[in-house]
Amino acid sequence: MSDHHRLFRRYLEIDAASEELVRRAAPALIRELDGVVSNFYQHIRRHKEAMARFPGGEAQLARQEIFLRDWLRSLLDHGTQGDNASRQLQVGRVHLDAAINEELMVAGMNWLRGDLVALCHRVELPEDIDRHELAVNLSRLIDFNLALMLTSYWRSFQERAMRLDRLAMIGQFTSTINHELRNPLGVIGTSSFLLRQRLEASGADAQSFAHLDKIARSIDRANSIISGLLRLLRIEQPDRAKIGLRIFLDDLHADLPAEEGLVLELRLPEPAAFGMFDPVQIGQVIHNLVRNAREAMDGKGRILISASSDPTAAEFLVQDDGPGIPIEQRERIFDPLFTTKSFGTGLGLTLAKSIVDSHGGSLRLEDGLDGRGIGFRIRLPHYYGPVRD
Ligand code: HEM
Question: Measured from the CB, is residue 311 less than 6 Å from ligand 1?
Answer without folding.
Answer: yes
